[in-house]
Specification:
Number of strands: 12
Shape: elongated
Distance between the termini: 110 Å
Oligomer: single chain
Strand content: 35-45%
Order of helices and strands: HHEEEEEHEEEEEEHE
Helix content: 10-25%
Length: 263
Amino acid sequence: MTRAERKRSHRSKKKRITLALAPLAAVAVAVPLMNPAGAATPSEVTADCAADSDKLENCEFVDVQFKRNNLGPNQRVSPVTDNCGATGASEKTFKVSTSVTRSITLEDGFTAGSDTKLANSVFEIGVKFSTSEINITRDDKTTALEFSRTDTVQPDSVGFFMWSAKRTDVSGFLRATYKEPQDGQKVFFSPSEGATSVHVFYPQILKNGTPDGRLWLRNVKCGTPEAAGLQNSTRALRSEPGFGEGGENVTDVEIPLADVPAP
């Protein structure tokens, strides 16, 4: 083969490689253009709704499913009364105090103020779950349960009252409408459309205006780890095991709410 022929062959091969790579480069450029760079993420939607952001035209809670009589956290709602070392039971007077309010799971214990866009939506949805049989708290006002009562503390035990509020658990998702389009779109969802991971807890209220729930007297044997934890606790309210779930050193006696003095 002559030198001229080898030179022409080299140029031809280089041209074919360049043409083959050209379509691939075009695809690589097109991919980033399809990413919604300005779209609101679910976490941004949640944050904007919680802050009642000025960027929002509206923020709505969309309900998908619900559950009545959902029990809330188990809480100690009276001081601990000590009957340690005694060989007999003792009558003690307990001062019981607790309160309930509507809450939303955007943050731990989050409640939207009554003048926010989200609160308006939550209130409106609450209207349809409040009936003559089950009255619920639709707004962010606190409802309290306070009374004094004399009960029996067992021998060599500490005693206190426990409480778990009854709630209507409505689950769904957030729908946010922005004033200005973001990447050509104004409506976004958190966490996604049709999801059930955002919960609104509407406390259920008795006809006398006090919270509905489960109330029980708990006795804990002295000298046990359970009793030591209570006696060393500096918190007036703390989470505890549920009714009948305290173990062999714990005795629970439910108190019907009909036996609680009226406010």
